[in-house]
Design a protein that fits this description.
mainly alpha; 10 helices; globular
Length: 188
Amino acid sequence: MRMLTTDREYRIALSDTERRLADAIYLDNDYDHPDAHEIYVANARLIPALLAALNARGAMPPHWPPYWTDPDCNPGRIRASRQGLFERNGCMGEDIYTHPNFARHLRYLLLGCELPQHVREAFLKKAGNPRWVSPRDAIDLGKFARKLARENSLTPHHATEEFFKLALENGFSVSVALTLRDAVSQLR
């Protein structure tokens, strides 16, 4: 079983130890993987160690805590944060971080949004300084994001979530990021 991945481009600065831990973590949501149990066991040891190291040196990016703990950053039918959804399902404390479904959230923490680089760059160039983007501007940016998504054959769900993540990680307010998310979700 191959677990070590050294070709990842992390969007947060990692120490050498953190990089070794992150490189060894399997981040895909592949529940049918033939080595799924071994992956779970390995990740259960590595993920808490990585998160503890990042917390100890204050290396969590500023967009991560709201994305993970703020119910407003998790729009949907059930009003709970992403962390809260795990807790509602009986998964508490460190068990959350070892749960296989946590991998996609850790993936975002480490790798950022999953949009092609040219799409990210075009969107951020059009947006300008995030401090000056209003909810009204976010509607127009959402139209531009939909155009980028269509041009790059992105699926509606993927584009909606990834543009939302892009906005958060680049300093847009939560309300603007949510307005943008709603605008992108109209992609057909």
